[in-house]
């Protein structure tokens, strides 16, 4: 189909799940091609110059970067908005998205996930426990202290569910998959907030899909993803 | 004045200049407090959790992150748009902004600028020539090869001047200040494109301001900036 939307990128990536969640919540049909970035060829570099996932494809139009894609989807499919209506609240939602994707994703989650899952499982190398220790005991607590002051008692960071919440929930989920545990007695508001987020039907579905892919061979992923979205 | 806009951050930063250029082009009055991020105190961390510049302040509302601020300014001051009207072109402009700010800024410009200007001038340490060599001879050529295929013969990346062009021009300018030279025979389209960008009055003004600050003491910066914008 000419205008069919394809998201290129494995749902194990929190950045891919962010975009898939937005499509699902908006009720927009899509296909997912579960690309793993370091297995991509030159064609992949052409559509994603930094070799990152996700990439969106509609006909001949391709677009990299989860934040750029999320904003594009909001403008193309404005129903069920995931950006607040108020200009200041919208800016805050984008800030939380940036904070999640950039700082929390790159500086906290990536070292943890890479050391605990990619190195031992994919690369058959030992985990560097000093890096894990820094991520869990130094960097993650600072993030949680910040979020604990920002998340409300009820609902979401900027009113109704927004792209900022989806981004934070996606990154955090991968930390759990790297055998990290949240101390709910130290950060009770964050714990309750993540509980609300992970009960959102679209997010729960995508987390379940990604969990079913963890530890399986990349060769099996296209079939797993196709079967999942066909169901 | 209650609704006066203050941009916190030194104009030597390409991210600060991006936001100042947008305000200038839109004709929005503003003040600039030339904060240097690593000299900020706890109050600065509170308004900029990642201790980055720029931060926007309007009354009690503060907002970090140049990309988030740029989009906020576009929505608050829609006249003289700096985001294309077409949804796909707008997404492309945001992609170029992301490519500039994130990859070009963080992975190419920062190592170069830090080694050639911050280490010898501010920290009184020797430059690591291996890092400079990689930035200039490996990473920057890849960026320029990519841009050479993307920039048009005339005009800008996504039609009229957009946030994507402003971001690219800002980052590149700091590379010139780190004694980098563009080989215009190898990348002629990029050279002509940057020439067009640096002739834009708002961008030319801000570059001149930043150049007048290079090599001066941070203590002198508030007076230089105040005098400049009062003129």
Could you please describe the fold and organization of this structure?
- In chain A, strand 3 (55-58) and strand 4 (61-64) form a beta hairpin.
- Chain A contains nine helices and four strands.
- The first copy, chain A, has two domains: 5-80 and 206-230, Glutaredoxin (3-Layer(aba) Sandwich), CATH 3.40.30.10; 87-199, Glutathione S-transferase Yfyf (Class Pi), Chain A, domain 2 (Up-down Bundle).
- Chain A has a four-stranded mixed sheet.
- Chain A has 231 residues and is α+β, with helices and mostly antiparallel strands.
- Helices cover 60% and strands 6% of the residues of chain A.
- Chain A is globular.
- In chain A, helix 1 (14-26) runs parallel beside helix 3 and helix 4 packs parallel to helix 6.
- Chain A has helices at 14-26, 42-47, 66-76, 87-123, 129-150, 163-177, 188-199, 201-213, 221-230, and strands at 5-8, 31-33, 55-58, 61-64.
- At the A-B interface, strand 4, helix 3 and helix 4 of A face strand 4, helix 3 and helix 4 of B.
């Amino acid at each position: 189909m000419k205008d069919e939307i394809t998201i290129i990128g494995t749902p194990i990536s929190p950045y891919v799940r962010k975009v898939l969640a937005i499509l699902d919540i908006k009720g927009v049909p899509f296909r997912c091609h579960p690309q793993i970035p370091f297995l991509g060829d030159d064609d992949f570099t052409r559509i994603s110059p930094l070799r990152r996932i996700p990439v969106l494809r509609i006909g001949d139009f391709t677009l990299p970067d989860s934040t750029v894609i999320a904003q594009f989807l909001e403008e193309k499919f404005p129903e069920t908005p995931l950006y607040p209506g108020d200009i200041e609240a919208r800016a805050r939602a984008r800030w939380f998205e940036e904070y999640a994707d950039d700082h929390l994703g790159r500086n906290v989650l990536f070292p943890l996930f890479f050391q605990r899952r990619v190195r031992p499982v994919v690369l058959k190398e030992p985990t560097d426990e000093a890096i894990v220790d820094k991520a869990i005991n130094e960097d993650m607590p600072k993030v949680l202290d910040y979020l604990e002051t920002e998340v409300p008692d009820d609902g979401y960071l900027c009113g109704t569910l927004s792209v900022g919440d989806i981004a934070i929930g996606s990154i955090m989920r991968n930390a759990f998959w790297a055998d990290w545990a949240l101390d709910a007695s130290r950060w009770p508001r964050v714990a309750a907030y993540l509980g609300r987020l992970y009960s959102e039907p679209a997010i729960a579905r995508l987390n379940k899909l990604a969990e079913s892919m963890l530890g399986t061979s990349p060769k099996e992923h296209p079939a797993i993803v196709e079967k999942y979205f066909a169901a």
